[in-house]
Amino acid sequence: MKDTAPTQNRTKTPQNRRSKWDVKAAAAKSREARKAQREWAKANLRRDFLDAPHWAELARQYGVRLPQWWVPCTRKHMVRWLSKLGFSLAWYRDWAGKSDLTWFMKRNPDWPLRAFVGLLLEEREAESLPLRRAQGKL
Fold first, then answer.
1. pLDDT by residue (tens digit) across 34-72?
2. What is each CA distance from 123 to 9, 16, 28, 96, 137, in whole angstroms?
3. What are the residue ranges spanned by the domains of the chain?
């Protein structure tokens, strides 16, 4: 009769095993990084948008979860949200009248990603279009 015991511990070598202390140290380092990012955002990003309650309502209506207030606008995140909400870069160029997303970041350096997504949700509402989700989850 063959041994049918799980072999997952047999394949791990001492080099690729992580002790619980390594994992705890990595988790603590990650918490510190998030805390530092939130502190930076608190000092540098706006939170006083009059449309914020409307954005939250639109997010509920469309079934999306808005980014946290402390997440800054980056090109990578903006492209991801354009795709998630069914917009293309060509649509953005027509809408904004500019050729690149960095223009928005330069004009609004203290805006968080949440505000950008809120504007996109407002556009979605204004066009009265249903949300066409890209492949994958929001």
1. 888 888 878 888 888 999 999 999 999 999 999 999 899
2. 53, 49, 40, 11, 21
3. 41-126
Question: How would residue 114 be classed by pLDDT, with cut points 50, 70 and 90?
Answer: very high
Query: Which class for 32: exposed (0-12), middle (13-18), buried (19 or more C-beta within 10 A)?
Result: exposed
Question: If we measure between CA atoms, which residue out of 120, 39, 121 comes closest to residue 72?
Answer: 39
Name beta bridge partners: 72: 112
- C-beta of residue 82 within 8 angstroms of C-beta of residue 89: yes
pTM for the model: 0.70
Using CA atoms, how far residue 69 sits from 6, 10, 29, in Å, is 45, 45, 21
Taking each helix axis from N to C end, the angle separating 89-96 and 75-84, rounded to the nearest 10 degrees, works out to 100
Q: Could you read off the pLDDT of 64-111 as tens digits, one per residue?
A: 999 999 899 999 999 999 999 999 989 888 888 877 888 888 998 999
Output DSSP code: residue 14: T
Among residues 76, 87, 74, the alpha carbon closest in space to that of 119 is found at: 87
Residue 138 has pLDDT above 50, yes or no: no
